[in-house]
């Protein structure tokens, strides 16, 4: 009798079952591993990817970040402070901080102890205060008090990683970077739009599939979609503008909400 051809899923389940089954003592000969197919960039056609981002654009043509700031420096500090904290919480803490210090020079003059006191409602505030002062000192010493526009210089600053650099490059300097946060990471994987085990892997795939003319605001659109509609616990598929395109197996609706009329 011929063995049934297994789908990758059932094959994986069978493999898992085989692992869990008690061993007979006789070792099966090692089977050569099938060569893994190259991982696809996305489950969507280029036309579908374009349609997704054009709908986001129709709803919100000029999306804005939700971290309050008055210049590139205060944006940089706000993003550094936002790690493992909500934007609302950061905005509350930075209101007074940025009134007192909106330049690296003023931040250095304010001092670590005072900064620590002003941001103590934010998680990890001790370390964040230390980084805020250290990065301000570096900006004064190495960049004439300005925020550099290149990724390498940004990532060399204390407390600044790839995601923070991407946010600053995008919002302060208009670069088409994609900062993968928790929402974008979830959407990339859930929708099979840009699957990856790490934020960098998701970022690389989004970079590769999003059309150049829609890249500038892509990260904001994805964050807003993840924050307000495609939520972590229960995606609100009934309010979703891309419900017909979405390839998430667990979606509960496939009729998209109507888009606002385009001017
Ligand atoms: S249909 Fe549901 S799962 Fe798919 S993108 Fe919309 S909210 Fe998310």
Automatic annotation (TrEMBL):
This is Endonuclease III. Residues 81-228 form the HhH-GPD domain. Its EC number is 4.2.99.18. It catalyses: 2'-deoxyribonucleotide-(2'-deoxyribose 5'-phosphate)-2'-deoxyribonucleotide-DNA = a 3'-end 2'-deoxyribonucleotide-(2,3-dehydro-2,3-deoxyribose 5'-phosphate)-DNA + a 5'-end 5'-phospho-2'-deoxyribonucleoside-DNA + H(+). PROSITE patterns: ENDONUCLEASE_III_2. It comes from Methyloraptor flagellatus. NCBIfam families: nth. Residues 1-42 are annotated as: Disordered. The lineage of its organism: Bacteria, Pseudomonadati, Pseudomonadota, Alphaproteobacteria, Hyphomicrobiales.
């Amino acid at each position: 009798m011929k063995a049934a051809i297994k789908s990758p899923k059932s094959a994986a389940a069978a493999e898992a079952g085989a692992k869990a089954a008690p061993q007979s003592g006789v070792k099966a000969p090692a089977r050569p591993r099938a060569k893994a197919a190259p991982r696809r960039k996305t489950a969507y056609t280029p036309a579908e990817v374009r349609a997704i981002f054009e709908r986001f654009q129709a709803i919100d043509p000029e999306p804005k970040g939700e971290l309050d700031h008055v210049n590139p420096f205060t944006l940089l500090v706000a993003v550094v402070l936002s790690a493992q904290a909500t934007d609302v919480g950061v905005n509350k803490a930075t209101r007074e901080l940025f009134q007192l210090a909106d330049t690296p020079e003023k931040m250095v003059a304010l001092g670590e102890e005072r900064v620590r006191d002003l941001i103590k409602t934010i998680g990890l505030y001790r370390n964040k205060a230390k980084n805020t002062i250290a990065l301000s000192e570096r900006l004064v010493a190495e960049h004439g008090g300005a925020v550099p526009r290149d990724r390498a210089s940004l990532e060399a600053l204390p407390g600044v990683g790839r995601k923070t650099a991407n946010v600053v490059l995008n919002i302060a300097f208009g670069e088409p970077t994609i900062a993968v946060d928790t929402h974008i990471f979830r959407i990339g994987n859930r929708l099979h739009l840009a699957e990856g085990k790490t934020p960098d892997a998701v970022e690389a795939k989004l970079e590769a599939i999003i059309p150049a003319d829609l890249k500038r605001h892509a990260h904001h659109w994805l964050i807003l979609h993840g924050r307000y509609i495609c939520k972590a616990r229960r995606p609100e598929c009934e309010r979703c503008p891309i419900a017909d395109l979405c390839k998430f197996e667990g979606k509960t609706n496939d009729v998209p909400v109507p888009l606002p009329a385009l001017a």
